[in-house]
Amino acid sequence: MNRVRQFRKKQQLSQFELAKEIGVARQTISLIESDKYNPSLELCRKLATALKTDLNSLFWEESK
Fold first, then answer.
1. Rounded to whole angstroms, how far apart are CA atoms 55 and 64?
2. What is the pTM of this model?
3. How far is CA 60 from each of CA 12, 16, 21, rounded to the nearest angstrom?
4. Is 35 exposed, middle or buried (0-12, 13-18, 19+ CB in 10 A)?
5. For 8-37, what is each residue's pLDDT tens digit?
6. Class of residue 64 by CB neighbours under 10 A (exposed 0-12, middle 13-18, buried 19+)
7. Per-residue pLDDT averaged across 29-48, rounded?
């Protein structure tokens, strides 16, 4: 489970806006958020940077 949707909403970005910022299709963001697509490390880094967080918070740390 990842927290891409949570961080995207916190930044007040639509799926389209986030996708455009990191250079992927909106559908890719949708698939990542629904855990139906496993992004590459490079894409994970782009997501973390765009969402102003780190990889651990976005993908691995358990929510409190």
1. 16
2. 0.89
3. 22, 24, 23
4. exposed
5. 999 999 999 999 999 999 999 999 999 999
6. exposed
7. 96
